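A student in our group prepared the protein record below, which I am reviewing. I have pasted the whole thing underneath without changing anything:
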Amino acid sequence: MKKLKRSARLVEMTQYLLLRPHHLIPLTTFAERYGAAKSSISEDLSIIKEVFEEEGMGDLLTLAGAAGGVKFIPKVGETQAREFIDQLCGMLSDRNRILPGGYLYMSDLLGLPNLMNEAGRLFATVFANQNIDVIMTVETKGIPLAYATGAQLNLPVVLVRRDHQVTEGSAVSINYVSGSHKSLHTMTLSRRALKENSRVLIVDDFMKAGGTIQGMVDLLAEFNATVAGVGVLVESGEVESEQRLLHDYVSLATLTAVDPKVKEIVVQPGNYFSKFDAK
């Protein structure tokens, strides 16, 4: 039990809530932690709730009853989301990112924790009400984004492997077609990694025609799981709609053109805002 001044208690309670998104915290937890009456804790939470809403940090939900408490739901306001997506598009548009063959170098961005955490907050905002059980991605580049999203939604992350690992135990494997050359690949998921009938949010760093993500969708069918949503950091805008295998997804940025000859990259905001309105 800690005896703190109210100002210090407000700071620590705020930090406690921020570190436990989507987690129901009984009022007794705070009352016992600080040796304060529930009425005082409720007043503190009202102040924190007001700040969260005014600053666009999210919602603080109060659930009444014996099993009730408070739950912090991270959310990003439209203005803040636009600022982040514009920043992301600017970073992706750096001409030095062009690799031989017209590919785009993104690994450095995927290795920036603050950038991935903010992207995870955007996905947590748009998928907050989808009753998701687990986040899924395929190794390896999508892993930082998946964990960032999982942290914001307080959900576990499941990794789909390219090759079966003996340490994973028995697994389900499927073949899928991906890439501009329609190459055949294999992906595998341990039977212990995912419960039957789970609701899954698929997250990936890049999507072209959607072959890899469609492979994950097909793999989930083997577990009788439901796809609760799909979020991608960057989608290719050079793929015609009829060629895309996936149509229901949320993207933060769209790569519309890469010209190695003049070293020009054109990146625009993805469909996040239209999907956010729909949600």
In short: The radius of gyration is 21 Å. The chain has a mean pLDDT of 91. The domain at 6-74 is CATH 1.10.10.10 (Arc Repressor Mutant, subunit A).
